[in-house]
């Protein structure tokens, strides 16, 4: 199970203008306005550079591609929204929502770095826990790992009979559900034709609420499946705990994902 992941950058970055300008969750009012036209231009360039990175697989090509793609998010961040849940505003000040728009991450760090918790976990006293380590993030970026097409790694996994579920909260702009669904469409497995012919079926949670939609191919819950979760951002279990639990239970039990009981 991969939730709101960045697995196939060229396709996912290319989907950002579609999400931000043309989808029901658009953050710009005018799809033909200068903001959207500028975003389309930036992400078209990003897509070409990312595809070149796929072919060349050289950090001197892939790092510029990475920088180009992430730079396109600059204008979106200026909107003052939580990029991981566009239903919410975000004040990125350290004493407000924080740089990643979740002040809870600071609370987690305080808890995990308390001497009592470190002792219980057997963690060294001189090691500091961080919810998101930006030094590691930068190293990951400048080694060009961000721009790898890691979705290819799923092909032999699926062909070996291991079931794969990709899910995404629809209010996440950073790793949006449209791009995630697009790259699953492109995944070249023996189930690709069946997945492309699949129709979106309502995902009904156990309280009989329509909590999203499902597409799948294969047996049971699917050998490859995609789920979009409504009223949820990047943190699906936090935003939709019942729907997330239903999804997890049905997937682990290899039961049809869509219908409630």
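-> sequence recovered:
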């Amino acid at each position: 199970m991969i939730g709101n992941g960045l697995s196939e950058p060229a396709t996912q970055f290319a989907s950002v203008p579609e999400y931000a300008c043309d989808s029901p969750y658009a953050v710009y009012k005018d799809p033909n306005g200068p903001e959207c036209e500028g975003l389309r231009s930036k992400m078209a360039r990003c897509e070409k550079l990312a595809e070149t990175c796929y072919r060349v697989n050289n950090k001197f090509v892939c790092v510029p591609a990475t920088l180009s793609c992430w730079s396109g998010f600059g204008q979106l961040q200026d909107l003052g929204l939580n990029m991981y849940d566009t239903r919410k505003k975000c004040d990125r000040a350290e004493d407000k929502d924080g740089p990643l728009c979740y002040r809870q991450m600071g609370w987690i760090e305080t808890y995990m770095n308390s001497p009592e918790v470190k002792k219980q976990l057997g963690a060294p006293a001189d090691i500091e826990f961080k919810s998101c380590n930006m030094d590691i993030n930068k190293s990951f970026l400048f080694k060009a790992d961000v721009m790898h097409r890691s979705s290819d790694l799923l092909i032999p996994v699926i062909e070996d009979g291991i079931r794969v579920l990709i899910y995404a909260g629809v209010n996440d702009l950073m790793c949006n559900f449209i791009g995630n669904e697009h790259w699953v469409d492109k995944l070249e497995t023996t189930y690709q034709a069946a997945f492309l012919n699949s129709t979106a079926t309502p995902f009904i949670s156990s309280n009989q609420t329509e909590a999203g939609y499902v597409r799948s191919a294969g047996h049971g819950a699917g050998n490859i499946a995609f789920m979009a979760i409504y009223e949820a951002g990047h943190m699906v279990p936090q935003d939709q705990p019942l729907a997330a639990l239903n999804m997890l239970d049905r997937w682990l039990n290899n039961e049809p994902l869509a219908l409630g009981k």
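The chain has a mean pLDDT of 95.
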